[in-house]
Amino acid sequence: MIQRLDPLTQRLLARSVPHGPLVLMYHSVVPGQSAPAWRWAVSMTRFIEQLDLLQAHGWTTANLTELLPTRPLPEKTVVITFDDGYADNYAAFEELAKRGMRATWFMVTRDIGQKSGWADEVPPQPMLSAEQLRIMHAAGMEIGSHTLSHCRLLKANAATVAEELVRSRQQLEQILSQPVTSFAYPYGQFDDAAVTAVREAGYQTACTTRPGWALRDGHPLRIRRISIFAGDTLSTVARKLVFADNDVSWRQLAAYYAGRLAHRLRLS
């Protein structure tokens, strides 16, 4: 069943004015149309509908490194990112490529071509192979690091953090024969020390899981992202594009507009 935007969401989207680039965060993209049980996965049917939504409303896709202030970007710029590097992402890559769209993948490099080896909410999953990464890179996709082992950086000592960051970058550069400068913090966990370690390891951009417009903090190693969840409808995703937030429920939006109205009344 093809999803449609509800009338109010359609109106919000038509009238919205972007406040800078957005970054979307995906993990697993599973075949079929049913909503996956894992919150961090989306069905392929919904993923395709979301790509069509972006194109229909004039969003340009970019890779993460293009957020660096080297040249102006189109007003509606979105960076699509995938954390971990699950093998089911390859079909998502093919859907992106045939539309001329780009995306950035953050790989747990120890598990490339094998199964995911870190503890998670789902059983170990097959991972993208080195050959697939080379094909994706040649097609214009960006490949970045998500550490060596999906390490919790805030719980590791400085030596381990440095090894996780440097070795993962080196492994990807060996596979791609290309410098790797983008990173995503596992579990979205970071602090000032982690940011410093990421910079010292040679990365120029890094993604958090904090919602908001991508460059809201004005820091290329603290880029914000919007999470896309299994239960998101097309209207939910559209409202996320408008408000750059994870919670765009009608209840939350009613509270938002009530707050704005109260603020205006205080100023009047």
Going by CATH, what is the homologous superfamily? Answer: Glycoside hydrolase/deacetylase
- Major sheet summary line: 6 strands, parallel
State the CATH architecture.
Answer: Alpha-Beta Barrel
In round numbers, the mean pLDDT is 95
The arrangement of helices and strands along the chain is HEEEHEEHEHEHEHEEHH
Oligomer: single chain
Helicity, as a percent range: 25-40%
Q: Determine the strand fraction and express it as a percent band.
A: 5-15%
CATH C-level class is: Alpha Beta
By secondary-structure content and strand pairing, the structural class works out as alpha/beta
Tally of contiguous helical segments: 8
Number of strands: 10
**What is the number of domains?**
1
By CATH, the topology is TIM Barrel
Q: What's the end-to-end separation, in Å? A: 48 Å
Parts with pLDDT < 50 across at least 5 consecutive residues: none
Looking at this protein, list some descriptive labels.
268 residues; TIM Barrel; 8 helices; 10 strands; 14% strand; globular
